[in-house]
Amino acid sequence: MLYKVLITDDEPTIREGLKSLIEWEELGFEVVGTAANGKDALGKYEQLAPDLMIVDIRMPGMSGLELIEQLRKDGQTVHVLILSGYADFEYAKKAIALSTDGYLLKPVDEDELVDYLKKLCETLDTESEARKKNSLTEQLNRERVIQALLSQESEAPEKESMARADLLWDTYSIVLFKPNGGSSQLPALRNQLVRQYEETGKGVVFMFESYAGLLFNDNPKLEPVRKCLQKSLQELSDGGDVEATAAAGSAAKHPSEIRSSFEEAAMLLEQRFFYGEGELLTASSMPIAPLGSRTPQIESEGHDYLADCDETAEKLYLALDIGNSESYASLVNTAGKRLLERGSTEGELKAAMAHIVTGVISKLSQRDPELQSRSGELSAGILAIHQAVSYAALERHVIDFVGGLKPVEVCAGTDKQIKKMLDLIQRNYAENLKLESLADVFNYNSAYLGKLFKSVTGEYFNTYVDKVRVEKAKELLGQGMKVYQVAELVGYSNVDYFHSKFRKYVGSAPSAFRKK
């Protein structure tokens, strides 16, 4: 760290000469500015906060002596080196009495200035370490007081302890932060919060249970306060290495009520999955779906629950098969909305999405064995589903992940769409193909798609699928396979139904055809 220097002299040649006289950085300093008189220096002091000022004793307007007197009157402890000529010795003696660090005669001797700077650098290092220790001690003391206020197992701190910690306020509010990357990021998050809030006097940072927290003296229900917190949360996210979700509890008027503010913020954070991303959560925040009825649904609706997931997986697989990327988002979004409307818990939503993705991978692997060589990537993608912090992040990840399972093909025009549909049937005749499902996959109304299909092929959709299956069945029967095996392989779970379809389009029973 380089210590900041402000040079003040009414002669431009001296100001510029001092800047270039020595290698400041090698001595631990940097010249951050210059001033032409005392009044100018006061303004720049507030702006630049220098650690050292080099000041000419005689200047027009506000002299160097008046400048130092004003700084000391304001309680500023900045280090000062005086510049003066021989005739100014009486002024210099007065300045030395104002706790200055040295006296340099003009013209300035380079070696003498270097000696002063070396000593001052050592002094500043010592002071900096002392401030850090004092700050850390004060910070830990205040943190212990806050932890005692929040703990239900320890006695509340006495008023005297609150006073020593400078925590006797008229209002108390808690903001809790939870790192999106897990509890291992808590120490780094705490350091970010200290820089963002504690060092700027915006509040007291503490750690409690699985949270990093901020105690501050204001009411987050007030719009200006909430906007300020939201802005600082965004700055924290933009400027730090750790992303976090934050929630603010209601303001408390007495230290004994701080625990209630904490519990309110903690409850909001535990439900963060159902809120918008990057939002400061408060009691007035609106979740993406009602939270009151969120109880486990799998046991009571297990069959329907998984059947819906399997249907979505089937549609996503077909969308991937034809390369219709526009369908991915729509299908995943629709599935998510159904789950939210059912009142599914966070765990159930993640389990359902993982089930859908696993189903898609399973179907793709049957046609693309090379997919199995990407097992590490696929496992990481499924794990990321369970690590999603918000529903929006979950849905976004699933859409991106599914889209990356197979290269996207560009499709356009009605004829090309029907051609893709026919190719899909040829490849997937054994699947449970339904016009309604393919309508979702192709982003068409099912009735319109049916008319379009017949106008191009001359056949109704179900008739066309049956004919494709029967043709495939003829090939398999010709290879000597048993009738029940062929029925299953071409997509008929009911053998009798397969018999009727085969007889309808071939004119004979499957067994008779097999014997030919």
What brief labels describe this structure?
516 residues; alpha/beta; Rossmann fold; Alpha-Beta Plaits; 4 domains; five-stranded parallel beta sheet; four-stranded antiparallel beta sheet; 21 helices; 58% helix; 10% strand; elongated
Task: Provide the fold topology.
Elements: E1 3-8, H1 12-21, E2 29-35, H2 38-48, E3 52-56, H3 64-73, E4 79-84, H4 89-96, E5 102-105, H5 110-150, H6 159-164, E6 173-179, H7 186-198, E7 204-208, E8 211-216, H8 223-239, E9 244-248, H9 258-270, H10 298-322, H11 325-341, H12 346-367, H13 375-387, H14 391-403, H15 414-428, H16 435-442, H17 446-457, H18 461-478, H19 483-489, H20 495-506, H21 510-515
Parallel strand pairs: 1-2, 1-3, 3-4, 4-5
Antiparallel strand pairs: 6-8, 6-9, 7-8
Helix pairs in contact: 2-3, 3-4, 10-11, 10-12, 10-16, 11-12, 11-14, 12-13, 12-14, 13-14, 18-20
